[in-house]
Amino acid sequence: MILPVYAYGSPVLRKIASDIDADFPELDILISNMFETMRSSEGVGLAAPQIGKSIRVFVVDASVYGEEYEDLKDFRKVFINARIIEEWGDEELLSEGCLSVPKIHEDVLRKSSIRMKYLDEQFVEHEKVYEGMAARIIQHEYDHLEGIMFPDKLSPLKKRLIKGKLRDISNGKVNTSYKMIFPTKK
Ligand code: NI
User: Where are the beta strands (DSSP E) in 11-132?
Assistant: First the structure.
């Protein structure tokens, strides 16, 4: 089932998401709905707060970048109760977008490497290092679990420049090919 995506300005996007345990009801359905929602909106990642659930679950599918980045060819994964335990390396500036912030793309500065702990959908724990584009996609989705959105990470000047556009999104004045829920739509 394709779920509507919560837009910038929605309170659920600003909460710190909670860990879940293995008996979380219908988790497999939730995960498959998240993959379906992400694909239908042509996203490469989707975090549970974006579909209105404040839990530490996100999905990624960056296989579309497989031609460009060899390590992303099979990068299709679920991350549960993830924690980034270390970040290092050069800070790199690269354009990002977000399904909750439609039609805005801005350069975001992020460190190049991360080490993280997470559970897979069988609740098996993993510890893994990610670098480059894979790290960036994870960092972006992980931020959603912490109530952080990519516009927060822009310079004060850039923030000022997109303020009106962000307000329009919160007010539902944006057209998307996918369904959205707006916090203050009149
Ligand atoms: Ni996002």
Answer: 45-47, 57-61, 76-98, 101-119, 125-131
